[in-house]
Amino acid sequence: MRFLKGHGTENDFVILPDPDGELDLPATLVARICDRRAGVGADGVLRVVRTKQVPEVAGQQAEWFMDYRNADGGMAEMCGNGSRVFARYLVDAGLEGPGEFAIATRGGTRLVRVEPDGEITVEMGKPAVLGSSVTTVGGHEYEGVHVDVGNPHLACSIGDPVVQLDLTHQPTFDPAVFPAGVNIELFNAVGPSRAVMRVFERGSGETRSCGTGAVATAVAAAALSGETTGTWTIEVTGGTLTVVLDEETSYLRGPAVIVASGELMLAE
Ligand SMILES: N[C@@H](CCC[C@H](N)C(=O)O)C(=O)O
């Protein structure tokens, strides 16, 4: 099985080209591929399949479907960094031209644009603010904003420096609010339009970046000053992302690179 490896601000993915939808990809195989010692190692898998081959998304107006899986093999609706890496692969492979095109995701169709400097912008849709909830990290309880970016987030502005947090264990969350689990962002607002964020992702643990989480963080950070729009710089462990919030939608911009390709020996 051919694979490629790529990342967006060090949120890393194994890319599996499967244009005709022939690949059987059970959760156990995804988990083995993502294993950082016994597999290739990644935060998730991006299966590249023609939209028309997948009944659940076949109605979307996009040639290619990003079948995203978390490192534990679970499916998620959307992945912001993965969308950029997916777009980078499509352009590098000559499957889409450079410029603007749509991709299908479980969270709906997303427009992507390759910028002149090589960064990629993804239109992320209008984030939904659904109230507040709490999490406990290292014995400290933090309140945050429940934001849906296609997938669920709890974005918490905290007084403690995020660099000091211990995110080696699953933070607590309220299963009544998040019955399907949640991605948890902890952030410090460090300027008028800038925040430093760490994240514990559903199905992947702490990652060095999360694109949907950066959008959720921008929404929560803006809300602190009573705003719903603006351009935010989100510093993550693996780099820097830019989030634009406007009245109708949101945009995520950042780098996306392919770093390797090869032949996968793992099989079910
Ligand atoms: N890293 C991603 C989000 C991946 C999905 C998430 N773990 C979930 O389960 O919702 C991003 O860049 O958005």
TrEMBL record:
A GO term for molecular function: diaminopimelate epimerase activity
SUPFAM superfamilies: Diaminopimelate epimerase-like
Subcellular location: Cytoplasm
Entry superkingdom: Bacteria
Keyword Cytoplasm applies: yes
Record keywords: Amino-acid biosynthesis, Cytoplasm, Isomerase, Lysine biosynthesis
Site positions for Could be important to modulate the pK values of the two catalytic cysteine residues: H153, E201
Annotated residues for binding of substrate: N11, N70, G80, N81, N151, N183, E201, R202, G211, T212
General function of this protein: Catalyzes the stereoinversion of LL-2,6-diaminopimelate (L,L-DAP) to meso-diaminopimelate (meso-DAP), a precursor of L-lysine and an essential component of the bacterial peptidoglycan.
Protein name per the record: Diaminopimelate epimerase
